[in-house]
Design brief:
Keywords: Membrane, Transmembrane, Transmembrane helix. The chain crosses the membrane at residues 35-55, 67-86, 92-110, 122-140. By secondary structure, the chain is mostly helical. It has one domain (2-140). Helices cover 82% and strands 0% of the residues. It has 5 helices and no strands.
Amino acid sequence: MSKLLATLICGNLTAIIFAIYFTKDPNMFWINLYGIYYVVFLGLFLLAFPFSFLIEKMVRKLDIGRFFIKVGLYIFLGIIAMVLLFPIILHWSSMAIIVAIVFPFILHMVEKIPEKYKRMAVIIWVIFSIVLFALIYYRMG
């Protein structure tokens, strides 16, 4: 539940931040958010979310420096994503590294939330994601 919640939080926050950063013309904000939303969530759900289970299993065996090793592995994963998934869109390829840095920090904070609140938080973030996607879709059309 923690990994899904961290993926939803990281995806929504980084998509909005990148859309604000890359938008030069205010009229293009929704178009940029639409494209970035797909790219960020595609990267998170194809790479960060599945590999988070493997990284957790690898890091669990270590005693010291767990968090920093996690961050290093996610940065390595972000670089691989940058090279493999974004060779055409070079000026957006730095997004993969930034998302790979933000994701373990959010995951670390989410793991501190008590289990009884995580289910409600996932429901809230899923609803927020659906509403944001519907708003983007409505503004595009």
